[in-house]
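Researcher: Next entry in the queue.
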Amino acid sequence: MNNSLSDNSTKAMEILNRMFAAEMEFMRSDGNDFSGIKSAFHPDIVVHEPVSLPYPGDWCGYEELGRLFNTMHNTWSSMNVENMLATLDSDTLFMGGTLVAKARQTEKEVRLPFAQILKIKDQLVIEAFPYYFDTALINAALGHHSVNVK
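Model: Structure for this entry, 150 residues:
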């Protein structure tokens, strides 16, 4: 691997590790401590979640991001991305891996491919596009058997 690819992957993993640590720190604080979020996410953050999930739509700014994280925390008892690979190209971070999550209410586990495109500004995540391989599988694990998508 040439050094620039290796450097890009190292920088990408640093950003991802900071982002996931901030999310976990926020949830451990019961949604009261935004300091980690502010160290990983830009004030103008927008997360675009699929309409077919129980937390659909665009989540904008720190307050909405906090609500998204709280909703995800109430939905899942555990959530992790295994075998994560990532690279950074200018202001765009590409990551992929295997999402492993356990539904809080049904205790069913899902394991599926997961990818995310993140836009970076000032070393902070400003926009996130998560891609879940099978949202129907996710909804079934959550006990949601019909999903209305418009």
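Model: The chain has one domain: 3-142.
Researcher: Noted, moving on.
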